[in-house]
Amino acid sequence: MRVFVVFLPLLAVFWSEGLWRKTETFRETPKIKFNGDFVIFGYASDTLLISSTYPILNSAAGEKFAPAKVAHTFGDSSIAISLEIATTKNITVSSLTYAILFDFELEDFAGSEVCVSDTITLSRSTIRTIQKSAQIRLDQSRPIENWREDVLFKLINSSRQDPKYYSMLEIQNRVVQDATWHMEMQRKSIIYLEKPSGANFEISWKFSIPEMEFTYKSGFWHLAKWAWLQYLSIYLIFYWIFQRIHRFLFENHVFFTTCCVKK
Ligand SMILES: *[C@@H]1O[C@H](CO)[C@@H](O)[C@H](O)[C@H]1NC(C)=O
Ligand SMILES: *[C@@H]1O[C@H](CO)[C@@H](O)[C@H](O)[C@H]1NC(C)=O
């Protein structure tokens, strides 16, 4: 009977596995830095405009390459980036798709490379200035496991020699398939300003970085602590019930003989 009192709570703890604290959460404002890299594709009716900070992509673009000037400023919890793309040809861009790359870091976690990507559709050919504001949110596909030792995940490996690797489709595939972290824009707002056609494109972003919630995998000792506490609380209940039954049986002499033979 005593064996049951010890083991039944253990079984109960296993059965109620869902109650184990396998993950924990915390809130933090991550350190997010624009790492200077971007890829931008402008789609015109009969051509493409390509601008990026990756030499392989730029040289593969040939005459589709459009040089760009990038500037950025950052505050405690915001980043402003502005991009000026020189359009020497008189082309009508109908949509733009881009990826801007950031490195983020948490106090106890080495972080990762992440990107925001988006498509902007231009309703008029004379639109030349786009101002976008958004709040950044980091979405994680699995809880943080390996804290400081983690190697910084690179979304774009700039040593790669194949231009296709830098296409939006490939970048997006890596974001979806390989990356643990995904950067999202929320509370977006966008302003379009017109300028004479032929003028340079100017795109600016203002990102604000709020405090966010992160999930991490509880370490073994953390888990053991919770499992132990849970075991103890269930054990006390079982113990109490056991004592009740024992006393009841004893007082009523139900198992009088069994009881005494064992003792
Ligand atoms: C650009 O093209 C449009 C029509 O396609 C034309 O009206 C305009 O004058 C052109 N601008 C320049 C600077 O060539
Ligand atoms: C980056 O690409 C180069 C060339 O393909 C490769 O040798 C290197 O291992 C890659 N680095 C990472 C971290 O994947």
Tertiary shape: elongated
Q: Strand order within the widest sheet?
A: 4-5-10-8-9
- Compute the number of strand runs: 11
Oligomeric form: single chain
- List the total number of helices: 5
| Distance from first to last alpha carbon | 13 Å
Query: What is the residue-averaged pLDDT?
Result: 84
* Helix/strand order, N-terminal first: HEEEHEEEEEHEEEHH
Q: Give the domain tally.
A: 2
Query: Which hetero compounds are present in the coordinates?
Result: 2-acetamido-2-deoxy-beta-D-glucopyranose
Structural class: alpha+beta
Largest β sheet strand count, sense and barrel closure: 5 strands, mixed
Strand residues, percent: 35-45%
Please tell me how large the radius of gyration is.
Answer: 30 Å
- Secondary structure: helix percent: 25-40%
pLDDT < 50 runs, ≥5 residues: none
Itemize the secondary structure elements and their pairings.
Blueprint: H1 2-15, E1 23-28, E2 31-44, E3 48-52, H2 55-61, E4 68-74, E5 78-85, E6 93-106, E7 109-121, E8 127-140, H3 168-177, E9 181-194, E10 201-208, E11 212-217, H4 220-251, H5 256-262
Parallel strand pairs: 8-10
Antiparallel strand pairs: 1-11, 2-3, 2-6, 4-5, 5-10, 6-7, 8-9
Transmembrane segments: 220-242
Family: Belongs to the TMEM231 family.
Signal peptide: 1-25
